[in-house]
Each structure stands twice: as structure tokens, then as C-alpha cells.
What we know:
The chain is an all-alpha fold.
Amino acid sequence: MWLYLIQGAGYGLAAASQPGPFQTYLVSQAVTRGWRQTLPAALAPLISDGPIVTVCLLALSQMPAWLERFLYIAGGSFVLYLAYGAFKAWRNFKMHTPAAESGSGQSIFKATLTNILSPNPYIFWILVTGPILLKGWRETPLNGIGFLAGFYLTMTGCLAAIIVVFGLASKFGAGFNRFLLGISAFALLCFGIYQLWQGVMVG
């Protein structure tokens, strides 16, 4: 179980710190509305990912074993690609302040909608985290639960930290986000290599 818990935590950190529409929305809200009002939006993936994960796992569970093995290799390659992108973002990091968003809708509702409409979670669950979750669950449900717990506890915690840091940007600056990107790049590199190894060596 501990291996899956650690993998889940690593991928949760990577998912939280990768630039995308959802993260951009959270940062813009934190900067324009303050971290206290934006903080509940960190929980949006717990709401939006339910149907996303279900659809992806149903599709993956119907696939033959050889295609599952191919997905491990494709997923590992994709994770290495994300690692390279995260490294470039870390190397060329600059503080961007997004434009203020008009309107006064509920942060968590808009954040949930933004995450559902973003392609990133679908790609991530089909190519990367879905096969790992399925493999762990088939070994024992405890492994699957450990992976999900590590993933969502780490992701929501990191998203909350990003919201607070950008909400208090005038006091703390943007160094925390760059730090997260650096750790994310290293974690993605390690997990990408490990997932490629699983695809090649584990039948």
C-alpha cells in the first residue's frame, strides 16, 4: 500500500503544480478576490473528478492486457514530456498576474466547471493515473484506496497552498510556486522512468 500512497502523493503534487486552465483560474481568483474566498475552490477536484475517473476507469477496464501494457509505456512517455515542460517552466519562471475576472459566482462552482471542461484530467487519468489505480485495486482494494488518498490529499493541499501564497503574494512573492514546479519536474522524471519500466518489464 505504501508504494501506491507515495505514487499517489507524487502525482498529486504534479497535478496541482502543472500550469493549466484550472490552476490559472485559482491563481486569478486568489489575486483578485483574496485567498479566504478562493480557498474552498481547492476542493473542486473532489467534486469534478468523480465522473471523470469513473468514465476513464470504465474504458480502461474493458481493454485487453496488451493494450494496458502499451498505456503504461505511453503514459510513462507522457509523464517524461510533462517533466520536461515542468523543468522549462521552472527554468524560465516569471510571475504572471492574471487579469481580474468579472462576475461574483461561487468560486467552487466555477472551479469545478473549469476542471470538468479542461482536457488535462481526462488525459491524466487515461494515460497515467488510471492504469496505476486499476493495477493497485486488482492487487488489493487497499492499494487503490491508498493511491487515491495520496493523490487527492496532496493535490488539494498543494492547491490550497498555491491559493494562499498567491493571495498573499505581496508578502511572500512567487518563489513557492517555482519551488513546487522544481519538485514536480523531478517527481515526474522519477515516476515517468518507473512507469516506463513497468510497461516494459511487467507483463
